[in-house]
Design brief:
Among the domains are: 51 residues, no CATH class; 79 residues, SH3 type barrels, CATH 2.30.30; 78 residues, Alpha-Beta Plaits. The model has no long low-confidence stretch (mean pLDDT 83). A hairpin with a 3-residue loop joins strand 9 and strand 10. The protein is of the alpha+beta class. The protein starts with a helix and ends with a helix.
Protein backbone atom coordinates (compact mmCIF):
# COMPACT_ATOMS: atom_id res chain seq x y z
CA UNK A 1 0.00 0.00 0.00
CA UNK A 2 2.84 2.39 0.87
CA UNK A 3 4.53 1.58 -2.43
CA UNK A 4 1.38 2.40 -4.42
CA UNK A 5 0.88 5.63 -2.45
CA UNK A 6 4.47 6.68 -3.08
CA UNK A 7 4.12 5.98 -6.81
CA UNK A 8 1.11 8.32 -6.90
CA UNK A 9 2.86 10.94 -4.76
CA UNK A 10 5.92 10.88 -7.00
CA UNK A 11 3.79 11.41 -10.10
CA UNK A 12 2.14 14.38 -8.39
CA UNK A 13 5.52 15.87 -7.42
CA UNK A 14 5.34 15.23 -3.66
CA UNK A 15 7.83 13.60 -1.29
CA UNK A 16 7.32 9.89 -0.55
CA UNK A 17 5.85 8.54 2.69
CA UNK A 18 8.29 6.67 4.93
CA UNK A 19 6.19 5.98 8.04
CA UNK A 20 3.53 3.28 8.42
CA UNK A 21 1.77 5.54 10.92
CA UNK A 22 1.21 8.09 8.14
CA UNK A 23 -0.70 5.48 6.12
CA UNK A 24 -2.75 4.43 9.16
CA UNK A 25 -3.60 8.06 9.96
CA UNK A 26 -4.73 8.55 6.36
CA UNK A 27 -6.99 5.52 6.60
CA UNK A 28 -8.55 6.93 9.77
CA UNK A 29 -8.90 10.26 7.98
CA UNK A 30 -10.85 8.62 5.14
CA UNK A 31 -13.29 7.09 7.63
CA UNK A 32 -13.63 10.42 9.43
CA UNK A 33 -14.26 12.51 6.29
CA UNK A 34 -16.41 9.92 4.50
CA UNK A 35 -18.95 8.35 6.91
CA UNK A 36 -19.88 5.74 4.27
CA UNK A 37 -16.25 4.57 4.03
CA UNK A 38 -16.09 1.60 6.41
CA UNK A 39 -12.56 0.16 6.24
CA UNK A 40 -12.02 -3.39 7.49
CA UNK A 41 -8.73 -5.09 8.35
CA UNK A 42 -8.14 -8.67 7.23
CA UNK A 43 -5.15 -10.80 8.24
CA UNK A 44 -3.78 -13.54 6.04
CA UNK A 45 -0.64 -15.25 7.27
CA UNK A 46 1.92 -12.59 8.11
CA UNK A 47 0.20 -10.00 5.91
CA UNK A 48 -2.55 -7.54 6.86
CA UNK A 49 -4.93 -6.30 4.18
CA UNK A 50 -7.17 -3.22 4.34
CA UNK A 51 -10.28 -2.91 2.21
CA UNK A 52 -13.70 -1.26 2.10
CA UNK A 53 -16.50 -3.28 3.67
CA UNK A 54 -18.56 -2.30 0.64
CA UNK A 55 -16.47 -3.42 -2.32
CA UNK A 56 -18.29 -0.95 -4.61
CA UNK A 57 -17.47 2.10 -2.48
CA UNK A 58 -15.05 4.77 -3.71
CA UNK A 59 -14.34 8.27 -2.40
CA UNK A 60 -14.59 9.39 -6.05
CA UNK A 61 -18.24 8.36 -6.22
CA UNK A 62 -19.49 11.64 -4.78
CA UNK A 63 -23.29 11.72 -4.43
CA UNK A 64 -24.57 15.00 -5.91
CA UNK A 65 -28.10 16.09 -6.67
CA UNK A 66 -28.97 18.15 -9.75
CA UNK A 67 -28.36 21.41 -7.91
CA UNK A 68 -24.96 20.23 -6.70
CA UNK A 69 -23.99 19.10 -10.19
CA UNK A 70 -25.02 22.48 -11.60
CA UNK A 71 -22.92 24.35 -9.03
CA UNK A 72 -19.92 22.11 -9.66
CA UNK A 73 -20.28 22.66 -13.41
CA UNK A 74 -20.26 26.44 -12.78
CA UNK A 75 -17.13 26.07 -10.65
CA UNK A 76 -15.40 24.14 -13.42
CA UNK A 77 -16.36 26.87 -15.88
CA UNK A 78 -14.70 29.46 -13.64
CA UNK A 79 -11.58 27.32 -13.19
CA UNK A 80 -11.40 27.06 -16.97
CA UNK A 81 -10.41 30.74 -16.98
CA UNK A 82 -6.95 29.60 -15.82
CA UNK A 83 -6.50 27.32 -18.82
CA UNK A 84 -3.49 28.26 -20.91
CA UNK A 85 -1.67 30.25 -18.21
CA UNK A 86 1.91 29.05 -17.69
CA UNK A 87 2.39 26.73 -14.69
CA UNK A 88 -1.38 26.27 -14.34
CA UNK A 89 -1.51 23.02 -16.32
CA UNK A 90 -2.70 21.30 -13.12
CA UNK A 91 -5.99 23.17 -13.49
CA UNK A 92 -6.51 21.65 -16.94
CA UNK A 93 -5.82 18.17 -15.54
CA UNK A 94 -8.17 18.71 -12.59
CA UNK A 95 -10.98 19.93 -14.85
CA UNK A 96 -10.65 16.88 -17.09
CA UNK A 97 -10.63 14.63 -14.00
CA UNK A 98 -13.88 16.17 -12.72
CA UNK A 99 -15.49 15.90 -16.12
CA UNK A 100 -14.62 12.23 -16.54
CA UNK A 101 -15.17 10.93 -13.00
CA UNK A 102 -18.39 12.84 -12.30
CA UNK A 103 -19.81 12.62 -15.83
CA UNK A 104 -20.51 16.36 -15.90
CA UNK A 105 -22.10 17.28 -19.22
CA UNK A 106 -20.00 19.76 -21.19
CA UNK A 107 -20.27 21.60 -24.45
CA UNK A 108 -17.52 22.61 -26.82
CA UNK A 109 -19.29 25.87 -27.60
CA UNK A 110 -18.58 28.93 -25.49
CA UNK A 111 -21.66 30.21 -23.69
CA UNK A 112 -20.00 32.85 -21.48
CA UNK A 113 -17.47 35.54 -22.38
CA UNK A 114 -15.18 37.39 -19.97
CA UNK A 115 -13.09 40.49 -20.58
CA UNK A 116 -9.52 39.36 -21.06
CA UNK A 117 -6.43 40.94 -22.58
CA UNK A 118 -4.60 38.00 -24.17
CA UNK A 119 -1.94 40.38 -25.50
CA UNK A 120 -1.06 41.77 -22.06
CA UNK A 121 2.70 41.86 -21.61
CA UNK A 122 4.05 39.55 -18.87
CA UNK A 123 0.87 37.50 -18.46
CA UNK A 124 3.24 34.62 -17.71
CA UNK A 125 4.30 36.36 -14.48
CA UNK A 126 0.85 35.80 -12.97
CA UNK A 127 1.38 32.21 -11.82
CA UNK A 128 4.87 33.03 -10.48
CA UNK A 129 3.49 35.90 -8.39
CA UNK A 130 0.46 33.88 -7.33
CA UNK A 131 2.74 31.15 -5.99
CA UNK A 132 4.97 33.69 -4.22
CA UNK A 133 1.98 35.17 -2.38
CA UNK A 134 0.63 31.78 -1.32
CA UNK A 135 4.04 30.44 -0.26
CA UNK A 136 5.03 33.77 1.41
CA UNK A 137 8.16 34.29 -0.68
CA UNK A 138 9.87 37.70 -0.81
CA UNK A 139 10.92 38.73 -4.31
CA UNK A 140 13.47 40.87 -6.11
CA UNK A 141 11.47 42.82 -8.69
CA UNK A 142 12.87 45.07 -11.38
CA UNK A 143 10.19 47.58 -12.36
CA UNK A 144 10.29 50.15 -15.18
CA UNK A 145 7.84 53.07 -14.90
CA UNK A 146 6.71 54.79 -18.10
CA UNK A 147 9.41 57.17 -19.34
CA UNK A 148 11.84 56.40 -16.47
CA UNK A 149 14.77 54.09 -15.76
CA UNK A 150 14.18 50.65 -14.29
CA UNK A 151 14.36 50.30 -10.49
CA UNK A 152 15.01 47.11 -8.50
CA UNK A 153 13.18 46.47 -5.23
CA UNK A 154 13.01 43.75 -2.61
CA UNK A 155 9.26 43.26 -2.46
CA UNK A 156 6.80 41.42 -0.20
CA UNK A 157 3.83 40.43 -2.41
CA UNK A 158 0.34 40.30 -0.88
CA UNK A 159 -2.36 40.58 -3.51
CA UNK A 160 -3.13 40.41 -7.26
CA UNK A 161 -5.96 42.43 -8.79
CA UNK A 162 -7.22 42.92 -12.30
CA UNK A 163 -8.51 46.33 -13.36
CA UNK A 164 -9.33 47.54 -16.87
CA UNK A 165 -7.83 44.38 -18.40
CA UNK A 166 -4.48 44.87 -16.64
CA UNK A 167 -3.09 42.94 -13.66
CA UNK A 168 -1.57 44.72 -10.66
CA UNK A 169 0.63 43.34 -7.88
CA UNK A 170 0.19 44.83 -4.40
CA UNK A 171 2.56 44.57 -1.47
CA UNK A 172 5.28 46.40 0.45
CA UNK A 173 8.77 47.39 -0.59
CA UNK A 174 11.45 46.28 1.89
CA UNK A 175 12.04 49.00 4.48
CA UNK A 176 8.69 50.71 3.83
CA UNK A 177 5.28 50.33 5.46
CA UNK A 178 3.09 51.95 2.80
CA UNK A 179 1.27 49.87 0.19
CA UNK A 180 2.77 49.82 -3.32
CA UNK A 181 1.48 48.36 -6.57
CA UNK A 182 3.18 47.38 -9.80
CA UNK A 183 1.34 46.68 -13.07
CA UNK A 184 2.60 43.36 -14.39
CA UNK A 185 3.26 44.75 -17.86
CA UNK A 186 5.87 47.15 -16.40
CA UNK A 187 7.82 44.47 -14.49
CA UNK A 188 11.14 43.65 -16.16
CA UNK A 189 12.19 40.62 -14.07
CA UNK A 190 11.32 38.58 -10.97
CA UNK A 191 13.69 36.59 -8.74
CA UNK A 192 13.35 35.02 -5.30
CA UNK A 193 14.88 37.13 -2.52
CA UNK A 194 16.93 35.82 0.40
CA UNK A 195 15.11 38.25 2.69
CA UNK A 196 12.61 36.81 5.17
CA UNK A 197 9.04 37.38 4.06
CA UNK A 198 7.08 40.04 5.94
CA UNK A 199 3.46 38.82 6.25
CA UNK A 200 0.54 41.15 5.63
CA UNK A 201 -0.93 42.12 9.00
CA UNK A 202 -2.26 45.55 8.09
CA UNK A 203 -4.11 45.63 4.77
CA UNK A 204 -7.62 44.21 4.24
CA UNK A 205 -7.88 44.25 0.46
CA UNK A 206 -11.59 43.46 0.41
CA UNK A 207 -12.20 46.54 2.52
CA UNK A 208 -9.74 48.68 0.57
CA UNK A 209 -11.27 48.02 -2.83
CA UNK A 210 -14.86 48.27 -1.62
CA UNK A 211 -14.76 52.09 -1.74
CA UNK A 212 -12.16 52.79 -4.43
CA UNK A 213 -12.40 53.07 -8.21
CA UNK A 214 -9.28 51.55 -9.75
CA UNK A 215 -5.96 50.78 -8.12
CA UNK A 216 -4.22 54.07 -7.25
CA UNK A 217 -4.14 56.36 -4.19
CA UNK A 218 -5.64 53.54 -2.12
CA UNK A 219 -4.46 54.90 1.21
CA UNK A 220 -5.76 58.45 0.67
CA UNK A 221 -8.70 59.49 2.80
CA UNK A 222 -12.13 59.18 1.16
CA UNK A 223 -14.04 62.34 0.24
CA UNK A 224 -17.76 62.98 -0.16
CA UNK A 225 -18.55 63.47 -3.85
CA UNK A 226 -21.87 64.72 -5.21
CA UNK A 227 -22.81 64.15 -8.84
CA UNK A 228 -25.82 65.43 -10.83
CA UNK A 229 -27.07 62.72 -13.17
CA UNK A 230 -29.63 63.08 -15.97
CA UNK A 231 -32.59 60.68 -16.10
CA UNK A 232 -31.30 58.41 -18.88
CA UNK A 233 -27.81 58.08 -17.41
CA UNK A 234 -29.20 57.47 -13.94
CA UNK A 235 -30.98 54.32 -15.15
CA UNK A 236 -27.56 52.97 -16.15
CA UNK A 237 -25.74 54.15 -13.02
CA UNK A 238 -28.49 52.71 -10.84
CA UNK A 239 -28.13 49.28 -12.46
CA UNK A 240 -24.32 49.46 -12.31
CA UNK A 241 -23.36 51.67 -9.32
CA UNK A 242 -20.09 53.56 -9.40
CA UNK A 243 -19.41 52.21 -5.88
CA UNK A 244 -21.43 50.34 -3.24
CA UNK A 245 -21.62 53.56 -1.17
CA UNK A 246 -23.59 55.30 -3.93
CA UNK A 247 -26.93 56.73 -2.80
CA UNK A 248 -29.46 59.27 -4.17
CA UNK A 249 -29.82 62.41 -2.07
CA UNK A 250 -32.07 64.62 -4.26
CA UNK A 251 -34.38 64.21 -7.26
CA UNK A 252 -36.17 66.37 -9.79
CA UNK A 253 -38.22 65.33 -12.80
CA UNK A 254 -35.15 65.26 -15.05
CA UNK A 255 -32.19 64.67 -12.72
CA UNK A 256 -30.97 62.75 -9.67
CA UNK A 257 -28.16 63.90 -7.38
CA UNK A 258 -26.12 61.00 -6.06
CA UNK A 259 -23.44 60.89 -3.38
CA UNK A 260 -20.46 58.58 -3.05
CA UNK A 261 -17.49 58.45 -0.68
CA UNK A 262 -14.18 57.54 -2.26
CA UNK A 263 -10.64 58.70 -2.94
CA UNK A 264 -10.10 61.00 -5.90
CA UNK A 265 -7.75 59.37 -8.36
CA UNK A 266 -7.14 59.17 -12.09
CA UNK A 267 -9.40 56.16 -12.52
CA UNK A 268 -12.37 57.94 -10.92
CA UNK A 269 -11.89 60.95 -13.20
CA UNK A 270 -11.73 58.71 -16.28
CA UNK A 271 -14.88 56.88 -15.23
CA UNK A 272 -16.83 60.11 -14.69
CA UNK A 273 -15.66 61.45 -18.05
CA UNK A 274 -16.89 58.27 -19.73
CA UNK A 275 -20.49 59.28 -18.93
CA UNK A 276 -20.09 62.40 -21.08
CA UNK A 277 -22.75 65.08 -20.60
CA UNK A 278 -24.88 62.65 -18.62
CA UNK A 279 -23.17 63.57 -15.35
CA UNK A 280 -21.99 66.81 -13.73
CA UNK A 281 -19.76 66.81 -10.66
CA UNK A 282 -21.05 69.27 -8.04
CA UNK A 283 -18.48 68.82 -5.26
CA UNK A 284 -15.74 68.79 -4.07
CA UNK A 285 -14.34 71.73 -6.00
CA UNK A 286 -10.96 70.10 -6.69
CA UNK A 287 -12.69 67.27 -8.51
CA UNK A 288 -14.81 69.77 -10.46
CA UNK A 289 -11.60 71.58 -11.45
CA UNK A 290 -9.92 68.34 -12.53
CA UNK A 291 -12.90 67.42 -14.75
CA UNK A 292 -12.98 70.93 -16.24
CA UNK A 293 -9.26 70.77 -17.07
CA UNK A 294 -9.67 67.47 -18.88
CA UNK A 295 -12.67 68.69 -20.85
CA UNK A 296 -10.93 71.98 -21.71
CA UNK A 297 -7.82 70.18 -22.99
CA UNK A 298 -9.96 67.81 -25.06
CA UNK A 299 -11.91 70.72 -26.55
CA UNK A 300 -8.69 72.54 -27.45
CA UNK A 301 -7.34 69.47 -29.24
CA UNK A 302 -10.55 68.94 -31.22
CA UNK A 303 -10.59 72.62 -32.19
CA UNK A 304 -6.95 72.31 -33.28
CA UNK A 305 -7.79 69.26 -35.42
CA UNK A 306 -10.67 71.14 -37.07
CA UNK A 307 -8.45 74.16 -37.80
CA UNK A 308 -5.76 71.94 -39.32
CA UNK A 309 -8.35 70.17 -41.47
CA UNK A 310 -9.73 73.54 -42.63
CA UNK A 311 -6.23 74.81 -43.47
CA UNK A 312 -5.49 71.61 -45.35
CA UNK A 313 -8.52 72.09 -47.55
Amino acid sequence: MMEKCNDALEQAGYNPVSSKNTILEDLRGIESNFPEAEIVKRKSGRFIYYEYADKTFSIYNIPLDDDGMAKLAQTIAILSKFEGLPNFDWVDDMIEHFKSTLNIPTTKESVVSFDENIYLRNRDYFSRLFSAIVSEQALVITYKPFGKDAITYIFHPYFLKQYNNRWFLFGCVEGRTNLSNFPLDRIESIENADTSYRPNTEFDFNEIFEDVVGVSHLTDGPETIQILVDALTYDYIQSKPILPTQKPIARTEDTTTIEIKTVINRELIQLLLSFGSGVTVLKPQRLVDAIERELSLSLQKYQSVQLNCTDGM
